[in-house]
Amino acid sequence: MFIPKPKNPTKLQIIVDLRARNDNTKKMASPLLDIQAILNKVAAHKYHTMMDLDGAYEQLRVHSNHVDWTTVTTPDGNLVSLVVQQGDCNTPASFQALMNHIFSSYIRRFMYVYLDDIVMFLNSLAEHMRHIKLIIDILKQEKLYLSKPKLQILAPEIDILGHIVDENGIKMDPNKVDSIANWKPPTSRELLHRFLGACGYLADDVDRLCVSMGHLSPLMGKVPFWWSFTEQCAFEDIKAKIAEGRDFHRVLLNYNEGADPIWLVTNRCATGIGAAIIQGRDWKSSWVAAFYSAKLNNAQQNYAIYEIELLAGLEAMCHYQDMLFWVHFTWVMDHKPLIHLRNQKVLSWQQACWMEKLNKFDFMVQYVPEVDNVLADTLSQIYKADKPGTVVKPNNQLLYGLLNPLEIPSYPWQMIGIDFIRPLPISKDWNGTEFNTIVVITDILTSMVHLVPCQSTYKAKQIAELVFDEVYKRHGLPEHIISDWDKLFTSIFWEQLHELIGTKLKLSSAFHPQTDGATERMNCTMTQCLHQCISSNQRDWVTKLPAIEFAINNATAEATGYTLFFLNYRHIPRSFIWNSVSEVEYLGVRTYLDKLKGAVMKAHNSVIASRVKQVRDANWQRRPSPFVKGDLVYLSTKNLTLPKGLAHKLALKYIGPYKIIKNFNNNTYRLDLPSHLKARGMHDSFYASLLQVHVPNNDQWFPGRQENQVADFGIKNQHKWAVDKIVAHSRNSKHTLFKTHWKSGDQTWLNYKQVVKLDILTDYLDTIGQASVEELSLDIRVCNDEEELISAMINLMTSDETEESNIGESMSFSNSTGFKNSPAKTTPSQPTDIILISYSNTQTPSQPLKMLIPWLNLEHKSYANISGWQIADISQEF
């Protein structure tokens, strides 16, 4: 078959399938010359001439006795070839042997022949011209013809063996760089082999190229050819490295006396080693003579760091021993123990073998810190892009986010903090009332505290009354209240109440109690006091609270030197008179007073014992937060609940990455959490200490590694967690629907049976001032979305058929023709069932949707129009 030549379409070349003949041919071996030696020899001389034989292989005749063996069958008949073809397996070796025989007296003196390429070099112009004439005469005598277009005589720049040689040195052929840049991802092992071969030919010109190629080489083995994201990243990285070195020139080493010193700079990574031979006065600003890189095999990757660093230097010296042998050079690396290499007395067997090879070279070792080793930046930093490692490794570094103090209030009790201590053992006060929770109310400015017992069953309304009794009657209305994300502090009643009275609510970021540090610190102090004051059965803590509160508020603050009472009231309240004596004493009264005195004394002593010296620099154990809006970060999982049966120690340490969508400028960030986390009620604002830096994953460094764990963090009661609050209702004489807001942000209509067991129903009733569902008004709330209304009615219908409905159970809709879940057929015994006549997204008011809904009174033949849809009495049509 004849096809146009790629570089010269005006000429044709013969393509013959000779695979069967080559399999039956005895192979001939003839070694080719060293390409790097040719390039270095040519670049070392001033004058260059390049010649190329025209159709070189076809100038080589086939022996007359072997012509019949060249027969090829075609549709037009059998053809034989009188000359050799490019497909013949022995053609390159035969032609190279011919060239070596013809020019044996001149090769390496002033010329090289690499197959059909003839290159001549010399520093003397006159001698060079004489050599050109000599070579042409030999070719004429042997009847070998040159290609005129490819003839380059005294060219300042010659294209030889895939490289360009000019006065600046050696660089890659731009055509080869463009070819690799436009290379499509391989789809088979054979195509990958071609790509690796083309890139490997340029390894001496590109820094650390073989390290990246090493991540594709496993596909050349006996494994399934699977081109994944890892291989694609390595493929793109190889092309990018070659493109970056497009205009890079390698220089020749100068061995003359007085020349600049020679340096060998090496480094290693987890999967490969790299080196560069450079020359110059300072190794940082020297010219590169050659690059070396290699992939570590499985055994070498298990070497100690010391041995891998040593291996990098050894392999580079052996690879370029023609450049470094009998030459003094300096070995530069960032592994300090190697400076004692030659003085090491105890060597392993392997190290002894390596030292035997290293002793052939004349070098000295120089250590440089890693930060100064600019040639080793990417080799040493690959673990930063390790996502599988990031999400499972514990973070032992300083936490992100320097502590920012809260805004300082202008006067006492302008800003307060509220928190709960629970659950506690049930304890009774003097009246016999039982309590199991303590409400801690702290003034942010002076740290004065009120400790109030309560019950864990208190609702938002009762907590509001408690705060009103303890704070408002003593200190007035606060302007700000700081709290965590307890359900009581996020309820509609609590939010609407403080919006009406003008108090601003400040909620802490998720899992960061340091936001309300004053209250959290007071919790610790109060807990320590309780430890020392209560009895062994822990049932009398309620009666100890007054003495503990008085002791805390009467203690002198280390920061101010005043008691909390004095800072609030400008005087110190009068305490017990311990040594008073009465002429007449009653035993019961004295016993009671001693009991009170004992409680107060214990409280005072416990406060003194719990005082710890204030840390002046809390930020010693923290570092500034580097995050900005738009960054991707990992989120710590230490505060997330795992599904039952799973262990936190074996779970991922971080999940993500997630995008930062808002920076509050106080080390708190809002993340773009996925819908499944929002549906579980996770708050989207987090403090910097719970975040971890994300580096764009370049997992080509970890071929074949997969993420085996799925980040599935569940909750104990997913139904209660997922539902946020009820925002509206609609009721008739028989049925009640509630519009429920889910923590994912969605809103759906649920019937009474679906919400009766949830706390949000009680909160909703308290908010609208009703004691029970029966007291809700009979009305029809207009729905703004037709699909919402239809979904609510289907929910109602299915709840009549099912005794217990699952919360959040989704209904499937058809896109255009109606519903997939058809309602049950109506019978006279079920006058309130839903009858769906027709529904279509293209329906117009002239073709109304007719349906019978539960809240229409059929006896009075009511009609209604809800949001553009006609709802009619159709009892007479059936």
TrEMBL record:
InterPro entries, per database record: DNA/RNA_pol_sf (IPR043502), Integrase_cat-core (IPR001584), Retrovirus_Pol_polyprotein (IPR050951), Rev_trsase/Diguanyl_cyclase (IPR043128), RNaseH-like_sf (IPR012337), RNaseH_sf (IPR036397), RT_dom (IPR000477), RT_RNaseH (IPR041373)
Domain annotation Integrase catalytic: ranges: 408-581
Question: PROSITE patterns of this UniProt entry?
Answer: INTEGRASE, RT_POL
Report one GO cellular component: nucleus
Give all residue intervals belonging to the Reverse transcriptase domain: 1-165
Give the region (Disordered) as residue ranges. 807-828
Keyword Cytoplasm in record: no
Report what the protein is called: Putative polyprotein
Source species of the chain: Moniliophthora roreri (Frosty pod rot fungus)
